[in-house]
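COURSE: Structural Biology Practicum
ASSIGNMENT: Worksheet 4, Part C
STUDENT ID: 0417
INSTRUCTIONS: Below are two proteins. For each, the amino acid sequence is given first, followed by its structure token string. Answer the questions at the end about the second protein only.

PROTEIN I
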Amino acid sequence: MVEVGSLRAIARATRGDGVVLVLTFAVTVVFDLITAVAVGVALAVVVALRAVAASGWLDEVPLRSGDRDGDQPAEEQRLLDEHIVAYRFDGPLFFAAAHRFLLELTQVSDVRIVILRMSRISALDATGAGVLGDAITRLEDRGITVLVSGVKA
């Protein structure tokens, strides 16, 4: 916070970094350096968690049949697409992002089967697992069968 060049670089880096800088500076002036360091670290953690949470997403993925010859009748593919939907999780599924995934999953309608492809989840905490379990329960309560694939030990 002492070098002008560093202040300019941090202020231009991202909005979150700028907010952390300004608030840490304000706490230093109003309270003391020890409190300011604690507040600055806590704010930086929050900013980092928001960034990590935003990096994960839930994508609907197309269904592919197991037909090796590729000559599946169009009617059969239409029925699959009409009654089955598959989602793939990418990135972390933890407390900061779990609620967003729950909302997306539970808005599924007009299908009989939901497939959750989990092989690309990079991190899963207890809250993420709880929210995932809640989403599965809500879907099953609506009569939708949920299949989970790619779960890592």
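PROTEIN II
(use this one for the questions)
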Amino acid sequence: MNDSSWDYELTKPDPANFPAAFEGFFAQHRNGFLRLAGSRLRNRQDAEDAVMEASYKIYKKWERILAHQNPKAMAYLILSNCLTDFYRRRARTAGRDEAARQHAPAASDIAGLGAYVKLDEALETLEKTAPMQANSVRLRHLADLSYEDVALCLDITPGAAKTNVSLGLAKLKDLMNIPDAGKGDS
């Protein structure tokens, strides 16, 4: 059990006391949260753990999130921060985390990721050279957020979000060596 799950277990809220608005909000956005977490972590269990950690933080800040002009964008920002923390925590505990060695991926898990290798490498390269574009593409196409929500998550204008998504997709296309479809090509 890692440090954050230990902390969560000590202060775990009673589900019977969850506000109905929080339950509905989480049910509505859970799949988008999982898609974004899965696209960054590429391990279903890790993605689910990160989403549960983020949902707890969202629950703790629920009143502030409801008061925000875009609660969905605020929740995605919390999730994004949880994903970053997840990476950092994994790096710190990599040498001593016994649970990670017990749940090693099977060959079928690794084979299933083969289709994502080019995309992962391209997104990683784009993240290093143009992080705003990479985050914009992830939020728009992997988390399925509107341009307005992407803009709120990244603290930019909706026009800048559209531009970053467009430029990011073009760079990803180049990085993945996808040829342009000309007239008559299918």
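ANSWER KEY EXCERPT:
Q1: Residues 1-10 have pLDDT under 50 and may be disordered.
Q2: The two ends are 50 Å apart (CA to CA).
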